[in-house]
Amino acid sequence: MTAIQAGRRSRGPASAANRIWDAGPLTKVVLAFALVLSAFPIYYMFVMATRTNDEVLETPPPLLPGGNLGENVQRLLENENAYFGTGLINSIIISTTVTVSVVLISTLAGFAFAKLKFKGGKLLLGTILLTMMVPLQQMGIVPLYEMMVTLGWTGQIQAVILPFLVNGFGVFMMTQYTSQAVPDELIEAARVDGASTMRIYAGVVLPAVRPGMAVLALLTFMQNWNEFLWPSIVLNPENPVVQTSISMLNQARGTDYVMLFTGTAVSVLPLVVVFIAFGRQIVGGLMEGAVKA
């Protein structure tokens, strides 16, 4: 077996995620109770999204789904003050683009810092770590906004994409993960086999760090999906993201609780889809880290 083939098979202990089922009955009961407590607010949000405003204000509140979901979603998309459909599409484009960029750049940088020896590497990594200690987004809003005005990007989604394409936390995370998940011997064996650096990255490193990439992808997607401050500053109301659209629902004609519940429920669905898509890798990565610890 070549080093490249070994790298493709070194995806961490696949059975590690199943070890949770070895826990005792009491542990399972506690976990089930915690799951119910965590899931109930989401369930209640979807229940309210299927009701009318009169039903939402009932005492006690309804706990079973109603039959108004389709009508509520239609009213949400037709709301002239929130531009919810545009905000939903913009958030999908922004979050997906930023997530792909952050994961790709962080994985490449993590491989370089963890396994490639070059002059000034530790200093450069230390500089990246320093950026994590400073709230750049809050402190840099004014110069960043001036930059977007100079570029003529105010009111356009590229103004929300560009500042987040690289993430210091992602680089640090993938550096640490790569240093633990990819043995130096495997890389040396691949070099003996004649593999180039990019071949090693694609055939050895990527399969080994896939769980870490999945965790980073989920965290990055959630962070950008929930971003509110910067989009509310640089975008206009006619071209919002989903979070600013929800805030505009609250300002239109007083408080329409059903619209707020419906907008929040619809905005949560992409996060659920992302978690389902990456869930197996995420759980495997977390369990692998627990086993190593």
UniProtKB/TrEMBL annotation:
Compartment(s) where it occurs, according to its Swiss-Prot or TrEMBL record: Cell membrane
Keywords for the protein's UniProt record, in alphabetical order: Cell membrane, Membrane, Transmembrane, Transmembrane helix, Transport
Family label: Belongs to the binding-protein-dependent transport system permease family.
Transport as UniProt keyword: yes
Protein name listed in UniProt: Carbohydrate ABC transporter permease
One Pfam family hit: BPD_transp_1
Main location: membrane
Domain of life according to the entry: Bacteria
Stretches assigned to the ABC transmembrane type-1 domain: 88-277
